[in-house]
Amino acid sequence: MATHFPRLLHLVAIWLLATVSATQAHTWAEYLTRITPDGSFTGTLGFARGHVPRSGNPDEVMVYRITNDNPANPICGPNQQIGAQKPGFPVLEASRGETVAMAYLENGHVSKLEPNRPALSGFVYVYGTSQPSKNDAIGAIHRKWTADGTGGDGRGRLLATRPYDDGQCYERNAGNAIASEREKKIPTVEPFGGVPCQTDFVIPEDAPEEYTVYWVWDWPLVLPDGKQTSTEIYTQCIDIKVSQSQANTNVKAVSDLTKTGVSKAPPAQLAKQFLVDPELPPQPSGIAVPVPPQPKTDGAKAPKNPTSSEDTKPTATSSSKDSKPTAPKASGFITVTVTEKPAVVTIISTETVYRGASSTATGTPPSPSTANAKPDVGSTAILPIPPRKSSPPAEPTNAVRYKIRQVHTMGRLYH
Description:
11% of the residues lie in helices and 21% in strands. By secondary structure, the chain is an alpha+beta fold. Strands 3, 4, 6, 7, 11 and 12 form a six-stranded mixed beta sheet that branches.
């Protein structure tokens, strides 16, 4: 018995190590790839900073987990700092405006969801910046940077929000309902043991040649009443070499399934960049998460210098007091555009305007009895303006000049 005891302990130790490894295995970027307009993967694969193959103990190297609310926590793990790209695992090369997929294995977080984990297996946020820093902290970026590039310190923007579960990924598991159903639609391709999940996002139109992306997965414990009882965040830091030319829309899909495990992007991620409200905290499992309205991001640019007054100019929406009428056109009409909420607007004419004339171009001047009549409040009328004494020679009898006068009018003015 004694001679077999050390061997038994050795076998138990191996089993424990295997169990711990399986339960602690989490998620990292397996690869990145470009996506054609029809949703197919294409081109040469790219990799996150510090990438190592699965044969090189990636769980220890690639997984970076944040388990407290300290806003000073680095957003990039110790193995994914600036300049940590490994030989043989280059950055992705893509074009401005091109859609990119970051693939990862679900590792049981979709098909074997633990109790009190959030709906959709948590939310994923993709942030982009042309000004990465070794001091970038989670608290300065996550839920701070916005889609329009004005949030937080203004050095970056929110590119996309996604559910961790993309709706088609799975880990092969006999008897598992989710895995079995999804395998019928997309068969497993080895060596992945299932179908990888993916987070798709678009390279901004103004991205410079070197662009950095922060992938943030928020996966806390959430009770049925919505109370969050833990913090658990995983991140990946990715550099992309951006071509300054526009994406080639005629590129053909050349994906090798033995390297990607999947060949198509989820249609929902191609249709909308924001599938989760960035202000919505992770929701309890089983709660339906609505797709939010899509923010306007066209033309949004991260400020070159966040402290520059040039970058803090007001947006197109301005107050009514800043709205000025354009110079009168030859026709005598004044155009006034009010871009904010309906307000009381008064336009004062410096000329005497009479009431009671015909509103047609062939009308006649008003009679003296109506010369001193006051305009109606809240009304709009086309009123004739008598010729000035300094005017050129008298016009034909039927010629009348017209001008619009708007007095105390509620609402927007469009002419």
